[in-house]
């Protein structure tokens, strides 16, 4: 049994602050995540240093690195904090809230995502609130950490002890134009497409930015004549004008007939896009949430 008197004399909040510093290796980032000032974090760290008689973190270049004592403390503390969080969550309702909040792609056109949404709709009295992840200026980690979302679908894998992040599916990307484009057929060389005007999906998404950068290797001279943060606007521009653009294969499949679009085959295939599903590990304490996760896997 724990010595409650000794625990009472020890400020357990110091351990929470320590763990946050350890995860981010940054006092300012820890302060931001905990909604306190960097000065308060520094003062708490100094108190913990005094109690443990160890610096815990030392300067390393422009950042900080943990001491061996800090590493050992983290290894034991992370498990205990996770168990404590699970205990607290057990006190909450075992059922899902009436509203289930998802952040994901602007269009859930893939069979995997569409099937998941339909499975959720089969849950009685459950309302789904779906947000376009690319339209916000917040990270998936923050959305989940501050309980702004139940599940986030993102193109970047996340490494965080408190979160589960698994690959959901891979999708091909294709170059497209409208069917009656005056110059392009079903096949084209790089030289031919570089004579055309491109669309540009202008959002703060790491994979999209990286992919657009990678494409520069063979399209460094491309002319991005139409930019938009709305994917629907990008597709409409390709439909209405003699523009070309790179889109995920499922979006093209869904819209090709209604917008009369066609795929342009290049000498080499374009990069695939990976979609990851992320959620709080503590949510697995809810039987209803586990049912949701099983729908993802089915």
Major sheet, described briefly?
Answer: 5 strands, mixed
- Mean of pLDDT: 85
Low-pLDDT residue intervals, each spanning 5 or more residues: none
Number of structural units classed as domains:
3
Question: What topology emerges from the helices and strands here?
Answer:
Elements: H1 4-9, H2 13-24, H3 27-34, H4 38-52, E1 57-60, E2 63-66, H5 68-90, E3 99-104, H6 111-121, E4 127-132, H7 140-145, E5 151-154, E6 163-171, E7 173-178, H8 190-193, E8 197-201, H9 206-219, E9 223-228, H10 231-240, E10 243-248, H11 249-259, E11 261-264, E12 273-280, H12 287-297
Parallel strand pairs: 3-4, 3-5, 8-9, 8-10
Antiparallel strand pairs: 1-2, 5-12, 6-12, 7-10, 7-11
Helix pairs in contact: 2-3, 2-4, 2-5, 3-4
Describe the structure.
- There is one protein chain.
- This protein is an alpha/beta fold and 298 residues long.
- The protein is elongated, with a radius of gyration of 24 Å.
- 44% of the residues lie in helices and 23% in strands.
- Strands 4-3-5-12-6 form a 5-stranded mixed sheet. A 5-stranded mixed sheet has the order 9-8-10-7-11, covered by helices on one side.
- The protein has 12 helices and 12 strands.
Distinctive features:
alpha/beta, elongated, 5-stranded mixed β-sheet, 298 residues, 12 strands, D-Maltodextrin-Binding Protein, domain 2, 3 domains, single chain, Arc Repressor Mutant, subunit A, 44% helix
């Amino acid at each position: 049994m724990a010595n409650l008197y000794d625990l009472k004399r020890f400020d357990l909040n110091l351990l929470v602050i320590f763990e946050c510093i350890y995860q981010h290796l940054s006092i300012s980032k820890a302060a931001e995540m905990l909604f306190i000032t960097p000065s308060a974090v520094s003062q708490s760290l100094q108190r913990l240093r005094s109690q443990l008689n160890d610096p815990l973190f030392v300067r390393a270049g422009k950042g900080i690195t943990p001491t061996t004592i800090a590493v050992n403390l983290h290894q034991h503390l992370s498990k205990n904090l996770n168990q404590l969080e699970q205990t607290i969550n057990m006190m909450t309702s075992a059922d899902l809230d009436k509203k289930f909040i998802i952040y994901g792609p602007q269009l859930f056109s893939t069979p995997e995502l569409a099937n998941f949404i339909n499975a959720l709709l089969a849950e009685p009295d459950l309302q789904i609130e779906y947000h376009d992840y690319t339209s916000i200026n917040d990270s998936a980690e923050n959305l989940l950490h501050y309980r702004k979302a139940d599940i986030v679908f993102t193109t970047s894998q996340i490494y965080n002890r408190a979160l589960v992040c698994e690959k959901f599916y891979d999708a091909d990307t294709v170059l497209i134009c409208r069917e009656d484009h005056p110059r392009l057929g079903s096949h084209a060389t790089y030289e031919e497409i570089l004579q055309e005007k491109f669309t540009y999906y202008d959002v703060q998404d790491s994979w999209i930015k990286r992919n657009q950068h990678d494409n520069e290797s063979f399209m460094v001279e491309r002319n991005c004549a139409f930019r938009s943060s709305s994917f629907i606007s990008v597709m409409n521009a390709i439909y209405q004008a003699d523009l070309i653009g790179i889109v995920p294969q499922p979006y093209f499949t869904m819209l090709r007939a209604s917008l009369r679009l066609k795929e342009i085959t290049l000498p080499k295939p374009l990069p695939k896009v990976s979609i990851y599903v992320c959620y709080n590990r503590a949510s697995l304490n809810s039987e209803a949430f586990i049912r949701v996760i099983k729908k993802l896997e089915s």
